[in-house]
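Practice problem: predict the structure.
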Amino acid sequence: MVAAAAGARRAREMTRRWLVAGADGMLGRDLVDVLRIAGDDVVGLGHRDLDITSHSSVRRALDDVRPDVVVNAAAYTAVDAAETDEAAALLINGTGPEILATAIAERSGTRLVQLSTDYVFPGDATEPYAEDAATGPRTAYGRTKLVGERAVLTHLPDRGLVVRTAWLYGEHGHNFVSTMLRLERDRDTIEVVDDQRGQPTWTRDLADFVRRLVTAEVPAGVYHGTSTGDTTWFGLARDIMLLAGADPHRVRPTTTSAFPRPAPRPAFSVLGHDAGRRAGIAPLPDWTASLSLALPHLLDRR
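Answer:
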């Protein structure tokens, strides 16, 4: 009985209290779910409950929740719109993380996990970008996310974690996978670009990766949270069709130039995972394995 009581006490002591900002988004919802399943105490706040661009809103939330860990999944993600309204993107992606970081710096022990993006890189590499590779964003969105990264690492040099990710999909939001499932119903053929390469990443895998980083108490710094393996959007689309029971040959390859967008898309978004490995954290699963697990959930949503 004494041993059981001691074990229960240790379990309680190890339970962390998390605050998830942006909890109403695709990743935020999976973060809250994954953390609760793991047995942690989680408070998820959407943009109506927590405005990360407001000092008073941030301080009030921190005072009320008193978290051990804050995960910032709130972001301005309209990549094309940011090209004509960079100030709006900067407010959420740059100023917001800085406000969080400065407020958390005043609280002993609290860690901040800032979600970031492959768009901080120029996207012209031929091998995976390492965590310490030179950045060089070519879009307003990428520039504003890089400002947020630097703010967190500057104000929380010993407690800040930046987790870059890419090509996210999940059951709780609009994304490439859900779009392909919709187009499969509506069109006989679908043209998809075959000259952009990256790592399709399931939000539940990323949520678990964030939990594992914090639980292992990894050193502060930059980590890459993307699936292993890589493909093109065309390759991903064909796999989606196969798993959905549709004819993959309905997907036809095309080029980026055929779909001009205000913000240039990176041709190469493959990220390396060496920092996580050095900290003893296994990378996310292969993208094909995760897609096969995730697709039934997205089909149910459809």
